[in-house]
Write a structure and sequence with these properties.
Length: 505
Amino acid sequence: MDDVCEKYNIYEMIRTLLLVTVTAAATIDARVKEYVDAGLFSGVVLVSSGDHILYEKAFGLADRTFKVPNTLDTKFHIASVSKPITAAATLLLAERGKLSLDDRVSKFVPDFPNGDRITIEELLTHYSGLADASSTADYNDWSRFQQTPASLVEKLAKLPPRSQPGTRYSYSNSNYHLLALIIEKASGTSFGDFLDQNIFKPLGMTNTAHHGDDKTIVPALALGYMPKEADAFEKPSYFDWTAKTGNGSLYTTAGDLLKFHRALQRGGLLRPETVTMSYGFDRKDRQVGMFWFHHEVAGHRSVYVGGSSPGFKAHIERFIDDDTAVIVLANVYLASPTPIADDISAILWQKDPQLAPVPKPVPRAAEELRRISGTYRFGPNFYQPNVVVRIEPRDRYIVLRYPAFDAPLTPIANGAYFDRFYWSFVRFENGKLIYRNGNDEFVATSVSPQSTQRSQRFSVCSVLSVVITSAPGPECLTDSATPSSSGGTPPRTLRGAGARPDRVH
């Protein structure tokens, strides 16, 4: 009798788990389709738990000209989601005794300025104080030509540092340019070959590679698209992916990223103690890991990172104590992968998740669009302090014009407007423009056009928090995250960077 009861209990447990899994998958599918139906997502979503895939589906088009659909085998550029893989390569070399995290940069790049004061660990965690060569005014020019780690580091060496090494978090893509060169020096092989021979092939990541030669034909590689106007798309300006070597030059599939996740979870790539150390949960002197951001969702610890490159967005979140991964890859430069991942995490771990409405366009009278038009000035606490912007009406939408680029705003419910570039929301009250991104809210007051001039001149990359700023040109369509001015509190970033403005990033 006891055996019968025990078997029945096991049956009921399995039945309950299956029902929970099916219910979660159906809820996730319905939620993701809301983004797709609103024209805000094209790509692949994968959710895994242990050895099981809870949800896996492709949406939209890999090629809009020839109407080629995305599939589960479609490859996507993953931008800064490349960084944890570059970090893993560095940690692998450390485990093999080829380098130490305490080694100075000068050991591998003897003539690098200040190299005797910057450690490899500080590069991994963005505490080097180095500038970002991807944010310079000439990036738009040189990024169109093939680069090497050495040529990228040569450009970095000419830039003044942002801060003293080790003193504060300051996100810079160039940290990972420099790590790519150190990997080459320490291993004696090229960056791409080292990843291929020591990570991708051993883990069976056969659909993943460093995009080191733009002439190479890559089967099933999605084309990336930029938003145009309120709801259209266009191709991004050309640039060479080697300009992002080390920090964002990889392409992959959701399935291959799952293999990377499982290898880290199960000791298939690095020692468990190395992996735990890399997450950074136990570090009081660091805000981030190597290279993972970290936080908790309903008591479940996770590490995560997002990425942005011309035409592409990516996001991976790994619940390390639950062996659960959420992977979202997109071939449209819209900020949806992060809120999609947030929603999925809430569905997985919260009993009654309260999900925000997915923004959907609603008609608005032309007279109303004209009424709110004008010139506005933000205060000193805005991402770009004291910036003056203009609101100009278009057919069915308005444009928020910064000094260096334009952001289309689509009318949505409750009199608000939506910026799909940065997942930001704008409303107008009593002659004021109120701008919200995540938990950040800013007020811009109406000013006379004669009191300001649109000739304000600053880098596109300094607009909107120096996070990732961008018009559709490639010069700033890169990932970054900005610390607070003090460096002592969690930094703030825009969702348009694939980041979470309410969390350490």
